[in-house]
Amino acid sequence: MTDKTVSRRSFLKTTTIAAGAAAATAPLAAPAVLAQAPKTLKMQSSWPASDIFQEMAQQYVERVEAMSGGRLKIDLLPAGAVVGAFAVQDACHDGVIDAAHTVPVYWYGKNKAASLFGTGPVFGCDANQMIAWLYHGGGYEFYRELTQDILGLNVVGFLSFGMPAQPLGWFKSEITDAAQLSGLKYRTVGLAADLFQAMGASVAQLPGGEIVPAMERGVIDGFEFNNPTSDSRFGAQDVAKNYMLSSYHQASESFEYIFNKDTFEGLEPDLQAILKYGVEAAHLANFALAMNQYSADLAKLQTEAGVNVKRTPESVLQAQLAAWDKILPPLMEDPFFAKVVDSQKAWAERVVFYSLNNAPDYELAYKHYFPGKM
């Protein structure tokens, strides 16, 4: 012991110099956390760059990047950038692209049951109730069985955004009777093609970017795509002036997010979870965007483009239901198709019973506050 008092300042100075000297002679240690380069996935959509569906795909991309803290990025490309709009599933399977944003109906040529995960027969459910069937009615297991077991595809897929029912479409003359569809050259896709053929139409299945040129050349006489925004952006109002809303041909549809299975399973578990559950976040974002944009663009079609907007007559809707009853029995001879339809009917019987009994008459309230608008 010594009487000499060691000040705090001199103690800190001495220990700091000693620590510095030790650090200078010791090998450099690796930092505790190494910065990782972000993983980038190449995703192509089935939509033109100008379509609102591409904006909806971008909403998913933005949420994935934000939730992953930048560790996962998606390079989103429009239709045709790598492969055609209808070829994205094969491109994912082959590893030509890592992911795709599309709809199941675009590959129904491989198995007609694909259309049941989007544009199948309507038993009373709306699109969001069919999304619920995926989660709680066994739908996702059926989807996996079809893609991986039956078709042997090297893909993983998720579905989201319950789309509003699609309009009957665009016509040169207002549709007042189902007989007008007989002999009509009409564009649609999936099981809706079978439906309109049963109603006497001649059907052409075309991607969105080919519809207006086909109408201009007389290849088709009428068509549907999806919604007022997409339709107006590709110029539907320039080739037809009668827009018929409400139809049972595609009363329920959802986006499909496809990933190459090897690529998906090669990611860390938390990034797999972000890709999977990111579709749920995109579901709400897409729906909110759709409600705002679809309604605004429908008003513009009426007020600025001179489009005659009409609701499809109930007699045409009844004819569609009769056509569904006609085409379903032969399709139900496929055991897989049959068990999916049976599952959907059981779901609809229970869920729609609750929904219709519980929901108030929204049309009554609308007419109360906006008399004469309808």
Outline the secondary-structure elements:
Blueprint: H1 8-25, E1 39-45, H2 52-67, E2 72-77, H3 88-94, E3 99-102, H4 127-136, H5 139-150, E4 155-160, E5 169-171, E6 185-187, H6 191-198, E7 202-204, H7 211-216, E8 222-223, H8 228-233, E9 242-245, E10 255-260, H9 261-265, H10 269-303, E11 308-311, H11 314-331, H12 335-358, H13 362-369
Parallel strand pairs: 1-2, 1-3, 6-7, 6-8, 9-11
Antiparallel strand pairs: 3-10, 4-10, 5-8, 5-9
What does it look like?
It is built from 13 helices and eleven strands. It is of the alpha/beta class. Strand 1 (39-45), helix 2 and strand 2 (72-77) form a beta-alpha-beta unit. The protein has helices at residues 8-25, 52-67, 88-94, 127-136, 139-150, 191-198, 211-216, 228-233, 261-265, 269-303, 314-331, 335-358, 362-369; strands at 39-45, 72-77, 99-102, 155-160, 169-171, 185-187, 202-204, 222-223, 242-245, 255-260, 308-311.
Protein traits:
single chain; 374 residues; alpha/beta; 6-stranded mixed sheet; 5-stranded mixed sheet; 13 helices; 46% helix; disordered N terminus
